[in-house]
Amino acid sequence: MGWEEKAAKAKKGHRPSLKNWERDGLYEKFPPFAEFLLSPSTNPYSSLKIDSRTGRAEERSWSLERARQKRAMSPPSLKLQAMQLDNDGSSEETTLMYPIVLDAKDTPPEVFHEQYEAKVIPCVIRNVPYGDSSSTSGNRATTFDEEKKDCDDNTAISPSRIQKEWPAVHRWSLDKLINDPDLSERGFKCGEDDDGYTIRMKLRYFIEYLQHNKDDSPLYIFDATFDEDKFAKRLLEDYTVPDYFSEDLFGLIGESKRPPYRWFLVGPCRSGTTVHIDPLGTSAWNTLLFGVKRWVLFPPHVPKSVVKGRKLILPGEDDEAIHYFTTILPRIKRRAATSGGKGDYSNFECYEFTQYPGETVFVPHGWWHAVMNVTHTVGVTQNYCSKRNFDEVWLQTRSGRKKMACSWLRKLQEHYPDLARRAKALNRRDRFVMWEDDPEAQRRYRKKKADKERKKREKREQKEKDRARKKEKWGDHRTTERRKETHS
């Protein structure tokens, strides 16, 4: 069975109701959009803000160089002042140039923690994977944005805070991955079926699919289980968690009990993730090693109904990432610009930007975001809880992961008693009862677990009945032959 058959089987399992994955013809329509984003004349950063007092739409775009200049000139705060030139050459002051562009060479972790993470400010941190070799541009030169070469900074590097270069810089190109003896034969998650079961493809088949498919919104490797076998576990040796995000309080619970939190990403052009907020109040970092991504961010105060754009999706239209960026997002922005700042569009803000190899995006907790792969991409992302977002994580974890929250609180009491006291204070404030102290919650949990087991058992029994009927109809010998034909 070649990559075409493997991909067809995976697509059928992932979206069985979608009969034609090429129905919108985006394989042909997308290149002009991508070329515009990658053009040197297109500023990689842009924003749209609706002034709540006047209802006026303020749309801005800026270059990487200007973003870095303004970061160097302005004190970090929630209201960063930015200079923007109008079409007539005059200057005008505006605010909120997000994301803030930082450089790992001259931004200590403590500065990031105090001035950006603690203030819930999204950032792009350049040169994290290159470590102490980041002063040379040979490994990170890109043909997509010549402007970035002009913005390289030869600031002296502090060996005490710059980590070593990631092996992933050299190992995570598509050519290297498809020929990697440890990874090419390993199956990675590229979807889920309607029952939530994982759909996998071997990496070598997936990369062939990536290179040849014409799907509107292709499958996307988003694998959180690469640490479960000795071969794929080598991926953990290929990168190092940046010092900015090394504090991970969920690590107290242990790898087997904590929620999924790290993912290896291989995305074909036109694939992506739809707009969402990261779970349990966590923040996230996303490092790109290969290719180009397009992002959009919305602050937490923008309503879900606006962000999702559901009232703007026409009957029969899809809402995958590529449809969101090419169709739905422009409609949202047009509706916001003509809203006069009224209703749900009061204080509307959105920020778009392009991520290039070697850049790490920091998404603070509560921020809406969507991502589209402009080209084929390879990267890694992790969600985490630190002291600076602990309150929000605790509030969501105690109700969303009730049993785990009890174990976590005990570990916090042992290792971080100040945070344990904070968690208990939040519980008292809200009159919240922990799961282990709530018999009714335990009863509901047991009933839910029993119902889930019953449904799984009934499904398994139904499969056995179907298999028995096939044997009765075709005979055991013919049934075995048909199964071999299906899996060959």
- Low-pLDDT regions: 72-94, 133-161
Shape: globular
Helix content: 25-40%
Number of DSSP E strands: 17
Notes on the structure:
The chain has helices at 3-14, 26-38, 64-73, 109-117, 147-150, 168-171, 174-178, 203-212, 304-308, 321-337, 390-400, 402-415, 417-430, 439-474, 476-487; strands at residues 45-50, 57-62, 81-85, 91-95, 100-103, 123-126, 187-192, 198-202, 221-223, 262-267, 272-276, 283-290, 293-298, 349-355, 359-363, 368-373, 377-384. With 488 residues, the chain is an alpha+beta fold. A seven-stranded mixed sheet has the order 5-6-15-12-17-10-9. Helix 12 crosses helix 13 (417-430) and helix 14 crosses helix 15 (476-487). The chain is globular.
Fold blueprint:
Layout (H helix, E strand, L loop, with lengths): L2 H12 L11 H13 L6 E6 L6 E6 L1 H10 L7 E5 L5 E5 L4 E4 L5 H9 L5 E4 L20 H4 L17 H4 L2 H5 L8 E6 L5 E5 H10 L8 E3 L38 E6 L4 E5 L6 E8 L2 E6 L5 H5 L12 H17 L11 E7 L3 E5 L4 E6 L3 E8 L5 H11 L1 H14 L1 H14 L8 H36 L1 H12 L1
Parallel strand pairs: 5-6
Antiparallel strand pairs: 1-2, 1-14, 3-4, 6-15, 7-8, 9-10, 10-17, 11-16, 12-15, 12-17, 13-14, 13-16
Helix pairs in contact: 1-8, 11-12, 11-13, 12-13, 14-15
Name a few traits of the molecule:
488 residues, alpha+beta, 6-stranded antiparallel beta sheet, 15 helices
